[in-house]
Write a structure and sequence with these properties.
alpha+beta, v583 fold, Enterococcus faecalis V583 fold, 4-stranded antiparallel β-sheet, globular
């Protein structure tokens, strides 16, 4: 103790990093401790969870084991109303938690307007908007119909969908085909060229892919995703490698089964020109995997993170189909020329199901190029992934990150760890314009909002 004031001062700052600036400016060496208070202050609930920790751990191991042992395969394509259980002609599925028309954001409204014109239920924007608000059209989350959709997530009855089966447990998941980037339905665009592209996808792309997949049999999507992580994808915002791998599998079968060479060339050019084509498949394989881990009593595993452009929603294995929601944040993004954060809609889409399954922001160390969206460095990508290990139940047995000596990606978001550590899931995403009809304006990253996770923890703890 007597030597303390004769030695060089060593400072550890706990709290705001700005507190340290006065020291470092004065030439005093200091280190900053990253400290985040827990999201939960209710000591009774925290104690209740602690007392039940043994059975929670057991339940979580069971739930995660089912997720990790899933075998998602692409088995075919069909029209939505033919295969999605409960699908109806007056029903439109959307991304995120439940929401009414009056509360929907611009891009979701634009996507629904586009779907109504695509289905022939309206001739123009005004007719579609009137019908959409009339009460004659029903709306429901894709997740409640074993489906997923990027951004607005719109699925209407006539749209072709991929059929993904979990060969291990028998459950299925569905997703539309990816349109590409920019001015597309999922970003809220509804112009005639958007509808024309959708009709081409229905009449040309869909039959060609359907026949090609049927010729091949089952396509192992898990193997494609695992290999793509080794090739620089994080299988959410970057799907270039995954799309290329899928292309190599499907191209020979398209050439073999297509009606003529012109159709084969059009279809292959479309897939080749759309680096995000595998995105919808990556979402569906994640959905099929995570749904196997549902309804495990006492499990705090998150099986859904989803956004509808207004709210961010979470579902847990141990709380059934209940949604826990909070306001959706606006992403930090790199915007297209002419656009800024002022134009951006709050976060939207079911694509955060990829993070929930150990892809995307959780595996961003495998794809450091993504952080360039917000002017980040490669080291930032590594930091993001390492933080996610602190809030997950385990590590993936198939999806590996080369830069971390092929360590499995952090998988299985534990709502208890999120609440106790104050570390929120990291997500990379696209950005839609807040007004309908404009489309994509950028891409970026964000941390999930705290509110849904606080509510999820409280709901889970009270149910114990």
């Amino acid at each position: 103790m007597n030597k303390l004031f004769t030695e060089k001062l060593k400072v550890v700052n706990i709290g705001l990093e700005s507190f340290m600036k006065g020291l470092t400016d004065g030439g005093i060496e200091a280190v900053n401790t990253e400290f985040k208070p827990p999201l939960i202050s209710d000591q009774k609930l925290l104690e209740k969870v602690k007392k039940n920790s043994a059975k929670i751990d057991k339940a979580n191991k069971k739930a995660l084991a089912k997720v990790l042992s899933a075998k998602p395969v692409l088995t075919g394509l069909d029209i939505a109303i033919n295969v999605i259980p409960g699908m109806k002609k007056d029903l439109i599925l959307h991304s995120g938690p439940p929401i009414k028309w009056k509360d929907m954001c611009g891009p979701m409204r634009g996507g629904i307007i586009c779907a109504l014109m695509y289905e022939g239920k309206a001739k123009n924007y005004k007719e579609a908007e009137k019908l959409a608000a009339s009460g004659k059209i029903k709306y429901a989350p894709c997740h409640e119909y074993s489906a997923v959709g990027p951004m607005a997530g719109i699925i209407s009855s006539s749209m072709p969908v991929f059929i993904i089966k979990n060969d291990k447990y028998g459950n299925k998941a569905y997703a539309t085909m990816n349109e590409g980037l920019g001015k597309v339905l999922r970003y809220g665009a509804y112009s005639s060229d958007v509808i024309e592209r959708l009709k081409w996808m229905e009449t040309v792309l869909y039959p060609a892919l359907r026949d090609a997949v049927k010729e091949f049999g089952k396509i192992d999507l898990k193997a494609i995703a695992a290999q793509a992580l080794h090739m620089g994808d994080e299988v959410h915002n970057r799907n270039r490698a995954a799309t290329s791998l899928f292309y190599r599998i499907i191209a020979p079968r398209i050439i073999k089964t297509a009606q003529d060479n012109q159709i084969a060339a059009e279809v292959l050019d479309f897939i080749n020109g759309n680096d995000h084509f595998f995105l919808n498949l990556s979402m569906a394989l994640a959905k099929a995997s995570l749904d196997a881990g549902r309804n495990i009593k006492d499990s705090s595993l998150a099986v859904v993170m989803a956004r509808n452009g207004t709210e961010f929603g979470v579902q847990l294995s141990g709380t059934g189909d209940k949604w826990f929601t909070g306001a959706a944040p606006v992403p930090d993004a790199l915007y297209f020329p002419g656009f800024s954060k002022a134009d951006a809609n709050p976060d939207i889409g079911d694509s955060s199901i990829t993070e929930t399954n150990g892809f995307g922001g959780f595996a961003i160390a495998a794809s450091p190029a993504i952080v360039q969206f917000v002017g980040g460095k490669a080291a930032d990508a590594l930091t993001y992934t390492l933080k996610m290990y602190e809030i997950t139940i385990g590590e993936n047995n198939i999806y590996q990150i080369p830069y971390l000596d092929f360590r499995g990606s952090p998988t299985g978001i534990d709502i208890i760890k999120v609440a106790e550590k104050g570390i929120l899931p990291f997500i990379d995403t696209g950005v839609a314009h807040k007004k309908p009809g404009i489309g994509q304006v950028g891409a970026g990253v964000l941390s999930a909002p705290a509110e849904p996770f606080i509510k999820a923890f409280e709901g889970f703890a009270k149910k114990l």
